[in-house]
Amino acid sequence: MPEVTTVPATRPRTSAPARRKPDWVEPILYLTPSLLILTVFVFYPLLRTLYLSVFLTNPLGIPKLFVGLEHFVSALTSGAFLHSMWVSTQFVLYTVPVGILLALCLALLAVKPLRGIKIFQLIFSSPLCISVATGASIFLMMYNPLSGILNYFLSVVGLPKVSWLTDPKVALWAVGFVSIWMRLGFNFVLMLGGLQNVPQELYEAAVVDGANSWHKTRHITLPMLSPTIFFAAVVGVIHAFQIFGEIHIMTGGGPSDATNVVVFQVYQMAFQNWEFGAASAQALLLFLVILVLTYFQFKVGERRVHYQ
Hints:
2 strands; two-stranded antiparallel sheet
């Protein structure tokens, strides 16, 4: 028999495995647009403010002389800055609680399943669509001591006219009411959304147990709404400390610095006195105050928040 030669089988060639991309590449690509925006509008201005706060600048904002912490010491010993901080604190203390309470009451009324309730929900949330300049201009005309509609109504009922924006005792309250109204739409939408997420089974069980409206509000609605109220309080405090538009348009910090809040004080220092270093230091001090208050709110207030 002829000898049969066998050819050994050759193993097929396999290509080298493709290199796998690291897991962090794709998330970074998605985050890049947001990181660029934050870098340009948040991180860089913050670092620039920190840099300018230790320098004496010329009117163009160019650093000329290193002064260290002198601007911070000057601000903390300045009567004008401490007064503006006190004005801002007063503004926060009565605008934030009143705004949240008013929005909560309106949301409790608007959450009822009644005919035509959508119209009231639209009306209550409408301030959310009005800009600060528009709202402040509207109330500026209403507060006019001669032709304003508020003083007209007071004269109709026989009450004396009020100098809403020129009386130091009234001006901050008048501007505060505008701020409450401007934030009412935002707070109302928050509260209404929170109320609509409360499980109806809890109310039905409470009715079976004989609970009245007050008991349901006290033991069901408020605990279940506490995360929303906590969020509105934190955001409200930050917003109230940063109030500027209403002050700038309606009072310009007057009368007699009665409405000269911290942000307007910083604005005057930077763009009227051209002291950018001192203004940067005051802005950083305000940032630290807001940071400490926010931390305190989370440390203390969050203990009373009931999460589902």
